[in-house]
Amino acid sequence: MTSSPRVVVLAGGVGGSKFTLGVREALARLGAPEATVVVNTGDDLWLSGVRLQPDVDSILYALAGVNDTERGWGRAGDTERVNHELQQWDAGWPWFTLGDLDLGTHLARTGWLREGLTPTQVVERLSHRWPLGVRMLPMTDTEVDTHVRVSGGEVMHFQEWWTRHRAQLAPLGFDNPGIRSARPAPGVVEAIADADVVLLAPSNPVVSIGPILAVPGIREALAATAARVVGVSPIIGGSVVRGMADVCLTAIGVATSAAAVAGLYGARRDGGVLDAWLIAQEDAHLAPDVDAQGVRAVVAPLWMRDVAASAAMADAALAAAEATAR
Asked: What is the pLDDT of residues 189-247, one digit of tens each?
């Protein structure tokens, strides 16, 4: 493998944004080309007439250094005057806060979409404001918002289930209407084909990485690429690091364990997507179970407490890719 690898990251959510920061740092030290980050757009939604892309914005703001690290979403130092006014008009969702600076992003995005730009072109425009150090691509230009089926036959948008109900309503399943006819966004398949390494961020495997892999053509690109595909476990010591991924995993019949999530993704040799899988030191005892699935287990520290720790994770993932290539 080249000492300046071409890297593609599949990512979504806060875990994806933190990991992407680490990848950027690790590649900069190597003098490698900028990574291409393929971002989940299954969380997207229309609200109060504007198009929101929560995962795109989380990664965008983190790379720009303007994200709110305490809340884990939105812009640092944001205010909520417009959100308050919307509530006075009984518009939008009272439990879904739109910060004023954040709303500026949504308005710019919506205006460009109304002018005829594609989501890929919009993400490119958004990326020009700050020196991000990576190339961002949406997973698809098709609207494939995630819906959650709950008991009683009710179906709601993922953001309502996640934010309003805090995943307390037992999900029966997750759907992305229209995804079967979707296509990868321009540049996604080409980036995977040209990569030396593809990294699956420690994002929610069901609703962040899952929709990316469900876009027709992306799994096929992963199967065909000469790159090594390395994933990072979002499970440490049998628990999720952030959010309610355990609820999502339970809904699809997967245990909340590093080995079980490796099995969900599957070994590339058997039609899955992984060549190697980073697991936490707390889960070192699961390494034989991962190896037995045809995926090379690599034990490494996985707590992303700061950029340096995230970069060390990225280094470990790149080393795992090189080891599997040999």
From this structure: 999 999 999 999 999 999 999 999 999 999 999 999 999 999 999 999 999 987 789 99
Q: What is the pLDDT of residue 243?
A: 76
- In tens, the pLDDT along 176-199 reads 999 999 999 999 999 999 999 999
Query: By the 8 A CB rule, do 221 and 140 touch?
Result: no
Tokens standing for 143? 């609207």
Q: Give the pLDDT confidence score for residue 2 in this predicted structure.
A: 73
Domains of the chain, first to last:
7-44+132-143+178-325 (3.40.50.10680)
The tokens for 250 are: 């339970």
| Stretches in the chain below the pLDDT threshold 50 | none
- List the one residue out of 233, 246, 156, 240 whose CA is nearest residue 206: 246
pLDDT in tens, 98-119: 999 999 999 999 999 999 999 9
Q: What is the 3-state secondary structure (H, E, C) of the chain?
A: CCCCCCEEEEECHHHHHHHHHHHHHHHHHHCCCCCEEEECCCCCEEECCEEECHHHHHHHHHHHCCECCCCCCCECCCCCHHHHHHHHCCCCCCCCCCCHHHHHHHHHHHHHHHCCCCHHHHHHHHHCCCCCCCEEEECECCCCCCEEEEHHHCEEEHHHHHHHCCCCCCEEEEECCCHHHCCECCCHHHHHHHCCEEEECCCCCCCCHHHHHHCCCHHHHHHHCCCEEEEECCEECCEECCCCHHHHHHHCCCCCCHHHHHHHHCEHHHCCCECEEEECHHHHHHHHHHHHCCCEEEECCCCCCCHHHHHHHHHHHHHHHHHHHC
